[in-house]
Automatic annotation (TrEMBL):
Coiled coil: none
Entry protein name: Ifi44 protein
InterPro entries per UniProt: P-loop_NTPase
GO process annotations (BP): immune response
Entries under CDD domains matching the protein: Ras_like_GTPase (cd00882)
């Protein structure tokens, strides 16, 4: 009979986070191994940190053995899991094996012991109270007991693999060439609601290429927005020459104020100069002293990136959603390719660092992708996910990888636009 844990995805996530970024490998399942205590010890004895889970009809309780089932007396963390809340208490020092009642020697931990063959757990009233369990729950009848080996979510081997991929991506992006050498740099425009993380993405990309955290673009969380100027950012390689792309940061979109619809048109057509001070009430005009009159292919936008905060993308006002859809329709009409960048995924409930490795298969993120697809009509393959650098002091290969993967996709999209260009010479909003 195949072993499958009784833990739900949500319970497992909750415990992974609670015990500081662990992953669990199921070693023993009593219902499969006939509630045999000998089998349990045989499977778990030398496995290092171990978690014992007990499933009763009404609750889930467990014991976390930081040093495993070794012979030494240790402190044991007992816990109860209710929904996504964990309550715990520490007992000991005890021999971990004495969590299980020993019929021959009448030996066990007096306040908490498991009678595996009888499918019962005895819990003192004091421990029940500490764990928030109902007062008269002991003896607690259990349906199953499972033990897990607990390892770090990110071990050295995984981190090494990610660093290799990261170096490979860095190489690809440093040597990227805009299609047909039509322009020296692909021009990427970041558009999105106020506070979505546009400027933070610029900083994140800069940080990854520089090899250290940098905060060149101003970042903030005021409701009226932080960026009020049009800024174009180049990134310089080790030899001092600019990398083949420019990130253009804009004023945030909002229902009432924010970036003026007509300003988007002028940016796309390459008329807006760097450091142009936006005005929500009126767009730039050709009378502006720095207006770029003779904009060329190198000045126009080659790919638009809609940036959304994953934690709030479903709560955007009706008016703002309508505005974004209107912008998107205009982009489609004039053949400008665009993608979505979901930021703040690290703030979604129960996301662990390990989830960032396989983020597109992570349940809460999948829900967000579906929401963006449903509400705005973007194709799933055009929705990218990153966790920006915001308060870190050091680079993290897991975050770097996501940022670089997103950038690679953005630059591919820019190349698709350039490749299609003869058919789209007239970029007219
Ligand atoms: N946790 C987390 N915070 C983020 C992320 N991206 C941005 N932030 C935070 O979100 C807030 C807004 O970020 P900005 O980069 O200023 O957003 P923006 O889109 O440039 O905002 P405006 O310039 O006001 O339109 C800041 O407090 C950032 O630190 C992310 O991926 N994860
Ligand atoms: Mg900004």
């Amino acid at each position: 009979m195949a072993m499958r844990t009784c833990l739900t995805w949500l319970q497992e996530k909750c415990l992974q986070n609670y015990f500081g970024g662990k992953q669990f490998c199921l070693l023993y399942k009593a219902s499969v191994q006939k509630f045999s205590k000998q089998d349990l010890f045989w499977k778990c004895w030398d496995n290092g940190p171990t978690m014992v889970m007990l499933y009763s009809r009404n609750c889930v309780v467990g014991a976390y053995l930081k040093e495993g089932f070794q012979k030494k007396k240790i402190f044991i963390t007992l816990f109860a899991l209710q929904e996504t809340e964990v309550s715990e208490c520490t007992i000991g020092p005890y021999l971990p094996a004495s969590l299980f009642y020993d019929r021959e020697n009448f030996d066990c931990i007096p306040s908490f012991y498991i009678m595996l063959d009888e499918k019962n757990v005895i819990i003192s009233s004091e421990i029940c109270k500490k764990l928030g369990l109902p007062p008269r729950c002991s003896p607690m009848s259990i349906d199953d007991c499972e033990t897990f080996r607990c390892t770090e979510l990110l071990d050295e081997r995984k981190t090494k693999g990610i660093t290799l991929i990261q170096n490979h991506l860095l190489h690809i992006l440093r040597t990227y060439k805009p299609y047909g050498d039509l322009v020296p740099q692909a021009r990427i425009l970041l558009l999105g609601p106020t506070g979505a993380g546009k400027s933070s993405f610029v900083n994140s990309v800069k940080s990854v290429f520089r090899g250290s955290i940098t905060h060149q673009a101003m970042v903030g969380c005021g409701i009226n927005g932080t960026s009020d100027k049009y800024r174009t950012y180049s990134i310089y390689g080790n030899d001092g020459s600019p990398l083949p792309f420019v990130l253009c940061d804009s004023l945030g979109l909002s229902q009432e104020a924010g970036l003026h619809f007509d300003d988007i048109h002028f940016i796309l057509k390459g008329h807006t100069p760097d450091r142009y001070q936006f005005n929500s009430r009126e767009s730039i005009t050709s009378n502006h002293p720095n207006y770029i009159h003779d904009s060329q292919l190198k000045d126009i936008i080659h790919c638009v990136v809609f940036v959304f905060d994953a934690t709030s993308v479903e709560q955007l006002s009706y008016g703002l959603v309508a505005k974004i859809k209107r912008i998107r329709r205009a982009l489609i009409r004039c053949g400008i390719l665009h993608v979505v960048l979901l930021t703040h995924v690290d703030r979604l409930d129960l996301i662990t660092k390990r989830d960032l490795i396989d983020i597109y298969n992570c349940h809460p993120v999948k829900h967000k992708l579906e929401a963006v697809h449903r509400d705005f009509g973007f194709a799933f393959s055009d929705i990218l996910v990153v966790s920006n650098y915001v308060s870190e002091w050091h680079l993290d290969p897991v975050k770097d990888r996501l940022i670089l993967l997103a950038l690679r996709q953005i630059l591919c999209t820019a190349n698709n636009f350039l490749e299609d260009l003869p058919l789209n010479k007239e970029v007219d909003l």
